[in-house]
Amino acid sequence: MNKKVLMIGGPGKIGSGTLIKLKQRNYDVAVLKRHAEPDNLLLRDISVYYGNRDSIANLEDCINQFNPDIVIDFVCFTPNQANDIIAVLKERISQFIFVSTVDVYGYPLSVIPMHESDPWKKTNSTYAENKLQCEKIFRNAYNLKNFPLVVARPAYSMANDFVLTAFSREGGKYLIPRLRSGKPILVPGDGTTLMHAGVAQNAGNMVACMVGLDKTIGKSYNCAHHSFLSHEDYVKLFSDALQVKPNIVHIPTDLLFSLNSPEVSESILEDLTRHNVAFSNDTFLKDFPDFEWEISLEQAVQEYIKFNDENKLFAPVDEIIYEDLVIESFQKLSREFQNNLKRYQNEKKK
């Protein structure tokens, strides 16, 4: 009999890839989710339970009805949720996969690329700190109660509705129209800061590899793309897909922070994209040496553009955003500096 796998949450960006792989491998899969999605083809031919993740009663009802061997938790975000799922599952399952995040390592990373065993820093966001506390709770249960824990830590994983830019987790809807129109694109620093962009489906496939294997119990795995790139090359991924030349404007990061504005301090530049970010997959590849990243970054970008074009989700190109104002001010300042320098040089020649 095939093992029964319960996915808590989703299927979302990463969970969709996991669900596809589990169905291909003929696992008996169920999903616990909050809302109905009648048009979601991925949910066909599997058991779907509807309920609130934060309700102990909903969790217990689902567990009692489906009686899973394995649980994959995609939506555990707080220590309370971690404690609740441990209490509900007790000793009923053979494997529990917690989908965490590489953000638990804290930025700047202590090592490039970052391995799971390298020294960690203080977390930079509430989201990352909560995930870290969840990991500690699960790890304590593993150590004291033999809770069958596996930790998956996905890195940035783009999807049809999710693309990062230097400032924003929703920046793609502005980036594409600006590239198409030739508008300037802000790239912080000199453009060489490392990004570890990946694809959600690939990350989901990595999670699916872990399912049902005793050798994974007690381990943690980075789930990242097989390569990383500079921030400037990341922007060029999108311009190449559009077959345009990007109009990139480099602005020193220190200058951006000197603006002392909430648009900067509350952006992801503060806690993520200002830092070199790269992660090692060595631990994962040691256990899964034949794994293949099925979707390339180029393909993911093409699919992102197509999806958002078809659904008319891109922002109007004439919509002014904060980055436009920063670029305009920086270019004006640069022109004034050059003019003043020329006047100074001319005066010296007299």
Order of helices and strands: EHEEHEHEHEEHEEEHEEHEHHHHHH
Strand percentage: 5-15%
Query: How much helix is in the residues?
Result: 40-55%
Overall geometry comes to: elongated
Mean pLDDT: 95
Q: Could you give the order of strands across the largest sheet?
A: 3-2-1-4-5-6-11
Q: Report the strand count.
A: 13
SS element count, helices: 13
Low-confidence stretches: none
What is the C-alpha radius of gyration, as a whole number of Å?
23 Å
* CA-CA gap between termini: 92 Å
Folded structure, characterized:
The protein is an alpha/beta fold and 350 residues long. It is 43% helix and 15% strand. The protein is built from 13 helices and 13 strands. It has helices at residues 13-24, 56-66, 79-89, 126-145, 172-181, 200-210, 231-242, 253-258, 262-265, 268-273, 282-287, 297-310, 322-349; strands at 4-8, 28-33, 47-50, 70-73, 95-99, 149-154, 157-158, 184-188, 194-195, 198-199, 220-223, 229-230, 247-251. The strands form four sheets. Strands 3-2-1-4-5-6-11 form a seven-stranded parallel β-sheet, with helices on both faces. Helix 1 (13-24) links the parallel strand 1 (4-8) and strand 2. Helix 1 crosses helix 6 (200-210). The mean pLDDT is 95.
